[in-house]
User: Fold these one by one.
Assistant:
Number 1:
Amino acid sequence: MDYKDYYKALGVERDATAEDIKRAYRKLVRKYHPDVNAGPDAAAAERKFKEVGEAFEVLSDPEKRAAYDQLGANWQEGQAFRPPPDWDAGFEYSGGRNPQADRDQFGDFFQDLFSQRAGFDRAARPGAQMHAPGQDHHAKIVIDLEEAYKGGSRDFTLRKPELDAEGHIVLRERAIRVTIPKGVSDGQHIRLAGQGAPGIGQGKPGDLYLEVAVTTRPGFWLEGRDVYMDLPVTPWEAALGARIGVDTPSGRVELQVPDHAQPGKKLRLKGRGIPGRPPGDLYAVVKIVIPPVETAKARQLYEEMARETRYDPRKKTGG
Amino acid sequence: MAAQKSPDPVCEVVTALTLIDLCRISGSTTDWVIELVEEGILDPVGGGQSAWRFESSSITIIARVRRLQSDLRLNIPGAALVLSLADENARLKLRLMQMETDPPGAMAGSEPDR
């Protein structure tokens, strides 16, 4: 287990006041909140958000902060750490202040210090609610674009926090086979009837709702059911127009690039987006690729073009 | 667990949720969901509350609004603003990343002259 520097996580000094800590925390929460940071940075932001939450959970609670401080200031972030025996002896605890915090998601360091050894908040932890009768469960699965087009069947591993006999949080894994319906799109949910929490007595079990996230390869992106893909073309294909073969998620198609196609021009392939009623469209977005000048002949051709065309793309910009 | 031994579970895409369905699945009150509709955060089709049908992405939107409310202490209009800016920001970042990535086969830099 590695030592965690909670002061460093919040960017405050060890003698920071409770007010300083709260201010630093609020600033960082705004910056790294997962719902503010969707898109490509989402995973990094979420990691940071959890670190900040864990640090605040400890430093905002005078009792936990005192216990943490007692470990001493000589530890370095990431240093191998084992709590000294009876490190928490002599502290009087009154229980947690923030039962909504996702404590089960905090790292080993936190769990060791404040859950298993010290006996904080045992009753208040989440996970207990998982045993309510027939409750619906929610999880997220990630599929790729091809699966969204074609559907398929695949095993996913879901983890859920549960309390073991001694009241510790354990992550219980279960494998579940999910039939991915053809044409499922990003953000939709798949319902697995009866796969939620078991009912008590005559109660029906709850359902499991899986939120679908569709990932794409580089060069592809999604807007709802519409699929966009980069279409790399040579300068002469863009200038003169060309009929080219393109591999799309639904197979190879022939595409007509019009003459004088500028970068960013969208060529629409109706109904070739994610299938559905109605299906999405596929857009091939022109991206002009300049080939390297590798031979004397190629150089000569470019030079000839420069001489013959006398085209000045900066003429109208006034730059 | 008994469920693991049973045949593969039936999977269906969740479509066209009623207000009642959505409240049950997301653990929300109808009044609160109606507020989200009035704010334009949720956009059901159909006229009148009993005819409303929600996309299943509403379940995720509701969870996001909840987290924004509890973590950033936002009210509903504030959460609506954050959601629309965050989504726009994500789209732009993704687009920027796509534009800055060279397509396969493109040279990363110019080759030295031969």
Number 2:
Amino acid sequence: MSHELVLQHLSVGYDDKIVLSDISQTLEAGQMVCMLGSNGAGKSTILRTLAGFQPALSGKVMIGGRDLTSLSVSERSKTVSVVLTERVEVPYMKVADLALMGRAPYTGFFGKPAREDRIIAREAIEMVGIGSLAERTVDTLSDGERQKALLAKALAQRTPVILLDEPTAFLDFHAKVSILRLLRRLAHELNRIILLSTHDVEMAIQLSDGLWVVQDGEITAGTAAMLTKNGVLGHYLQAEGISYDEKERTLKIR
Amino acid sequence: MAVLMILLSTLNVFCGSLDIPMADVWRILCGNEVEGHPAWSVIILQGRIPQMLTALLTGMALGTCGLLLQTAFRNPLAGPSILGIDSGANLGVAIVLLLLGGTTSIAGLTLGGQFLIIIAAMAGALSIMALLMVLSKLLRSQVMLLITGVIISYVTGSIIQLLNYSATEQGVFNFVMWGMGNFASVGIERLPIFCILTCTGLLLALLLIKPLDALLLGDRYAENLGIRIGRVRQMLLLVTGLLTSTTTAFCGPISFIGLAVPHLARLALGTSYHSTLMPATMLIGANLSLLCNLLSTLPRDGSIIPISVITPIIGAPVVLHVILKQNTTKL
């Protein structure tokens, strides 16, 4: 799965309001990129646009050389998978069932999974490290485990691009680290493009392959080192009581 | 479950408000006349059997409807009666019975009149469904949607009251009788059209199994799994509208079956997957409705208890159970 995600002069937003305009960025396969930005900066809007939930106002999104808008709903479901912030509460649904849902784009009219679908779903559960929870129902999981189960669904979907909207929100500290490390490993090992939004700035700086800083209607991309050097991170993080230690790449809070 | 259905169906034919000896029922079913009781053949063949089939199909239809609505709105308390969909159908029927007809009972209506009632019920049910679909986009909270359903019921109720006020005595009587719910009102003549409409709805519902499974996760996830949400919603609208309006138009408003049956099915199977849940819902719905029909003939003096009296007694505990279970998490 060697694909590129290319944003060409992309403008995103709603009929009456442009949130971000003229974005041009490229994401390579095998990278985990974290999107940073204040609430309302447009992180979710851009994720929704890349997932095809809302149309781009102008510009293009190319995935593996194909225009996102030219893909049918079915083709799109095999190209981009998502993990969203909305809670998944389905009575009696087991982790194994949830992962199997990721096979829906590949199953037939009645959605009956084939043996191969079960194997792929099972592998996905193992990959996110919750193999022992496969038979547990989703509502009995901790928040971190549930995020991993949803990630297993996304992996089972076998898409070159995985988008996650604030996957670390509501998690405790250890779970946050665990999920980000997992995402990075999966991006590298499976050669996927993983783009996520987060407010966990320090972890993103330490763990991501690249950062997108969304502020003032623009996206500035680069590695943590680059964005530190050119002052973008310092500018973004600057606030009363906070200082960004550029040498250590950590936050100091007074 | 299927065995139980056969058993209940049989009981429905053998037991009725009029005592007919078992042996004689059997004789009639085998095509023989019982000497001295020519009316018995009519009762069995043109009364009880169509009534049994009506109860069976109505139970299937309402249970399926409830399941579709609960998944579509992601709300365990959704059902045709609670969301006010059948009140929409009521209004349609009321307009026909009270304003236009008024002098004949449903059973006495011409075929054209029958169609008019179905179409009116359908129009009522579909407009309420469409309204709810729009509102559900705006109302994020489950409770708000339910309250909206209750308000819709009040509004249609008051319009119906108004219609009652200006209608003829006969029209009001007909409407009240219809409102009590009765599986017998379909009868042998209208059974074919009733079967066609409900079976079409049920078959269409079976075609929605995969999208419904995906919808369990929510619209966004479903769309990301390759489901065309817009089209599926239209289908859901059509199927639930068809099933609710058909059963309501023919049998009167039958509450709680639609709401309670999917929960019984989930409880029995321990799954949310529609590939098994939907057939189970259909079977349990049929069973429950056959049971209600059986109970309605309990007074052995030839009269029957209205169905709408029985279903809440069975359905309400199930609903309470669901609310109490929800209460521990969140509503």
Number 3:
Amino acid sequence: MSSWSLLVETYFRADLIARFAPEIAKAMLVTVHLAALVVVSGIVAGLALAVVRSFQVRAINYLIVIAVDALRAFPPLVLILLFYFGLPGLGVVMSAFQVLWLALGLVLAAFAEEIFWAGILSVRKGQWEAARSTSLSFGQTLAHIVLPQAVRLTVAPLTNRTIGVTKNTALGGVIGVPEILSVASTGQSITGNSTPLMLGALAYVLLFIPLVVASRWLETRFAWRRV
Amino acid sequence: MEALIHDFFNIEVFIRVFPLVLNGLGMTLLVCAAVVPLGLGGGLIIAFGMQSRRRILRIPIMLQVDFFRVPPLVLLIFIYSGLPFIGIRLSPYAAVCVAFLLNTSAYYGEVYRAGLESVAAGQAEAARSTGLTKLQTTLFVVLPQAVRNVLPDLISNTIEVVKLTALASVVGLPEMLYSSDMGRAMTQNASPIVLAAAIYLLMLWPVVRLVSRLEHRLGH
């Protein structure tokens, strides 16, 4: 067999493509669903934490900083296994999908909090002072003056980080969530052929290339600059 | 509360699995020792390649950078269990190193590229006009400033590499997470994973703090 036909036979067998394409497509939906949940809950939680932090209550801020640091230091897979195997012992029963959502959502929230906080810090002090001196309250200043400027600064780093965290949806296979990688590698073991895995890789490329292109565009559009 | 201590902070279990987890830590460090320096070097090559004026050089590198940014676990499984079908069989350690190296040098490459772009063109022009060669200009004038400008990103990417090594457990490399998960199965208790988490925290917390400091300083 020539090396070319060996390659086709191993990675692009037509009958296996036909057989697994629908399954991979279904798995793509699981991945997208999970990613959407993680992105929305993670970013909202991160923004909420950054806002809480800006009130500068010392005890609360220590708690936030410690939690955020810890979440940035743990490999996500450690968290996933910890929740998956540990929480049932405490009487908290979650599906594998929910465990994945919780773990990745927490990780994204931690990174998002750091990014939003850096954004808030980088808004000039004069902006705060000017707003407060026109008799806006602290909350109004934060909501209408500071956050709009801060969020603009965070777009590029936040997009990159979000893409990074959503890639970890591929860890779902370890605890049995039927996302792309898990379906693809199961397909490979069943058929003894790498075509399903190649399909899985293509599915990821299909999902992430638009994101990467979008992030390139965002990066040039909202480069991390002081306003 | 008692259940919490028994399931997550069980001293007896900690003592029992400690040697096992420590062995795993050794393997984790071994992977990092290969991937971090090679990734830093590979990233630099990629960054310079992307700046090249020759399309033949630039386009494959850009494609490589985009392609190898698929989720690292996908790349790892592909290299570990997909390549043997065409006769390339790697040990778990080699597969992990190759996969993470391809992935992480793409990221380091992007970071360096941002750094190189942040150095004003006048710097290189001035250096060249004082008679420095192209290589000297790059090494002694442009690169040091570029690296300084993106230092937080380089360090934070290195943290990501260390965390990435936990994925090696999926292909059976006995690094720290794999060992502690074995300990969990052995003792039917989640404490070994807590132990591994604590060691990761101990290793990475100072670095996370450092990055956070550097980033906030840049923000100001």
